[in-house]
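S2.1 Query sequence (ABC transporter ATP-binding protein)
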Amino acid sequence: MAKRKTVLRVDGFSKSYEKGKLAVDNLSFDVKEGEVFALIGRSGCGKTTTLKLLSGQMRPDKGEAYVDGERILGPHERLLAGHDKIALVEQDYNLFNHQTVSDNIKYPIRRSSKEYQEYRLKELLRICQLEEYAETRPKELSGGQKQRVAIARAIADEPPVLLLDEPFSHLDMALRSDLRRMVKNIAVEANICVVFVTHDTHDALAMSDRIGVMSKGHLLQIATPNEIYTKPLNKYAAHFFPHCNVLNQEELKKMDVERENGLYMARPEWLKVIDKEVKNHTAKLVHVDYFGNASYGEWEIEDGLRLWVHHDSFYNYEIGETKSVVLIEGTDWWKLED
Ligand SMILES: Nc1ncnc2c1ncn2[C@@H]1O[C@H](COP(=O)(O)OP(=O)(O)OP(=O)(O)O)[C@@H](O)[C@H]1O
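Output structure tokens follow.
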């Protein structure tokens, strides 16, 4: 595959609101053309502040960002807020409710020729699946449709970078799936690099090429969704995905697993329930989280030692039932850093 060029480079961003308390702490990352990059992390870890620094709403105390090699200016260096090369879609969409969808989308390119405006509008209505709503006003649209208009308007002027703040937080599961696909298509088709912040680990895993895990203002780990899921750096990154098993050396010993001191992780899919009795692996089912297409069973191996196990949709275990829980072949406990 051809090497993609870096479009956005963030170099050592730091920002504090209060003296001595860094909201963003020496943050560096880069995003390539056509790439979707997710920033995930617990509430208050600095995700929104990072987007505000990037979108030019706020000035970093330290550090710089570059788009196509050109330093982006802070709000104190510009007459108008924001950047032409970086578009931000905020959670509340900020659409013009008294104008039609078409007028909203054409707003950023209103100074271009009429021919270009019409050509671009047609293209954006198609990409964002809004053709039938061209003459509708935003107040008559659903949340998902409004989100699509906001994205179409943000990319109208062909910015190389698109920032999305919690893009799908108001939407139901079916719509989220459609929009994830749309954003991914936009990134590839228009060669835009997309940075989005989210609390939703499904959105991050399903949509991004790489994920940055933030903690207390800094980036803990940057990796592909698969690496983040299977090889998280530490307990914080591991627990970002629910139903995660993190055990220490002593706990592993109870299952005859000998390891050096430290913490170890196994995803629920790495474990399975078998009928055969296996010494030190017998477990009682104490709880089930049911999701329709699958479920997660909490199995108690010893008093207090519980493991989450992924069950497929055909499981028929009863609470209180005793079986054995073992690792599936080809998987192993993953060592986490402190
Ligand atoms: N305007 C502000 N004044 C003072 N402190 C702020 C301000 N905005 C954010 N903070 C603090 O900065 C830190 C980072 O906040 P930020 O909103 O960037 O986090 P976040 O990861 O986006 O959180 P969430 O997921 O809840 O939106 C937090 O400790 C927050 O309390």
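Residues 17, 23, 41, 43-49, 199 surround adenosine-5'-triphosphate (CB under 6 Å). The mean pLDDT is 91.
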